[in-house]
Amino acid sequence: MRSILLSLSLVLPVHATAEEALALDPSLVQAGAGHFADSCASCHGAEAGGSSAPDIRGAIPSEVARAARGMDQMPPVALDAGQAEAIGAWLMSLDPDVARIKLDFEAARAR
Ligand code: HEC
């Protein structure tokens, strides 16, 4: 688990604070919405609020990258780091309060 997080931090930018990470670039958010519609909405719902797969509003980029490698019930989805970052930006924009808690937790673990 630790080595997965470490290798993720090499791929995804590590933001100094949750506030910095949540100062989202609107064009990145918009790109993420498009990638989500293409690759994720069929299971997670058009607004990420859940369908055959769970509600993932507020998920952060590292969670997107991890899930895309495949999980118990979720098949792997081919995403590059930029797409994972963009989808994460869109999901964070849908529930910034949840995203802030996750980012703070991730930062605390990395310390
Ligand atoms: C074929 C259906 C399917 C597709 C397509 C899909 N997912 Fe999932 N996803 C699931 C299911 C089912 C789960 C529930 C967790 C599991 O696998 O047991 C899940 C779980 C997740 C989780 C939660 C992981 C956690 O920590 O619990 C995230 C985040 C996620 N998916 C993101 C995505 C993203 C982003 C995409 C598009 C790139 C995507 N999923 C596409 C079915 C799907």
Brief digest:
The protein is 62% helix and 0% strand. The chain contains 7 helices and no strands. The longest helix is centred in the C-terminal third of the chain and has 15 residues, at 96-110.
Number of helices: 7
Termini Cα gap: 15 Å
Question: What is the CATH superfamily classification?
Answer: Cytochrome c-like domain
Which class do the helix and strand fractions yield?
mainly alpha
Low-confidence stretches: none
Estimate nothing, just give the exact number of structural domains. Answer: 1
Number of strands: 0
Radius of gyration: 13 Å
> What is the highest CATH level, the class?
Mainly Alpha
- Second-tier CATH architecture: Orthogonal Bundle
Features:
single chain; 111 residues; mainly alpha; Cytochrome Bc1 Complex, Chain D, domain 2; binds heme C
